[in-house]
Amino acid sequence: MSTRRVLATLHQNVIPSMSNPAILCDFLTTSYDIGGVISVMALSGLFILMTQHQLEYPKFYDKLYALLTPAVFMAKHRSVFLQLLDACLKSSYLQAYLVASFAKRLSRLTLSVPPAGALIIIALIHNLLRRHPSINFLVHWEVAQDDGVASLPKKIGADPFNNEETDPAKSGAMRSSLWEIDTLRHHYTPAVSRFVASLETDLTVRAKTMEMKITDFSSGSYATVFRDEARRRIKQVPLAFYRSTPTSLFQESDFPGWTFGCQSNMGAQASVEGNAVHTLETVDASPAKRSRV
């Protein structure tokens, strides 16, 4: 039996029936250190040992941080992984730099993942901002009181966050901001742009909102986004009214001096003009011939 098949059922069929699941710690930690899909599948069993059987794994969050790549949002087991990611970041004892690094890493991924992945990331960041008020500076920079200048990078357009860094402590997220989320306001998928607008409202009125369930977004795909958009009822339907059937894409008055006729019409017009010129030449030459006769 392959390692993937074992890890796929280990947390459901094996660990609950064992009297001492801690003996699996070496197997799970080794699988978790491999990286890629194996690490994603080993996360379920490792999370159970850490939360229910007092397993200590110092580099757990560093490995989890390294797993956040665009490939995860297209993997087969992405639904379980994203739910576990949300559960792993629930603890209020997590340090601010660690949570900020995860939020910034997820924010950067919105620029390269499919629309369904962007929806999940927005939900994850929404939950992180609600659980950890210490990272609210990522969306709202306070103005310094001494000189009245905001604590932003001096060089315009420079982001101090290093996306290639695998160590959250050295990523520079504490000096950055979630500017990627603001760019999603102009996303080509309407569902994403609407969701970003609702995120700002939820963070403004926290008393009337609650955390989002990742299970509602974790199984999303292009098909689900298209289906939801097709089923959505449109309040105002845009209509185009023409008094007569248009014959061209643009009107000639919009572009004076330009012609938008097709090549066949232009060729026919040129042929007609050529025949007209030939006829005139024939008519002009006939009197000369008659005079000679």
TrEMBL record:
Keyword presence, Transmembrane helix: yes
Matches recorded under Pfam families: CBF
A GO BP entry: ribosome biogenesis
Residue ranges of domain CCAAT-binding factor in the record: 39-196
InterPro entries (UniProt xref): CCAAT-binding_factor, Noc4
Spans through the membrane: 34-52, 105-125
Keywords: Membrane, Transmembrane, Transmembrane helix
GO CC aspect terms: Noc4p-Nop14p complex; small-subunit processome
Family: Belongs to the CBF/MAK21 family.
Name under which the protein is recorded: CCAAT-binding factor domain-containing protein
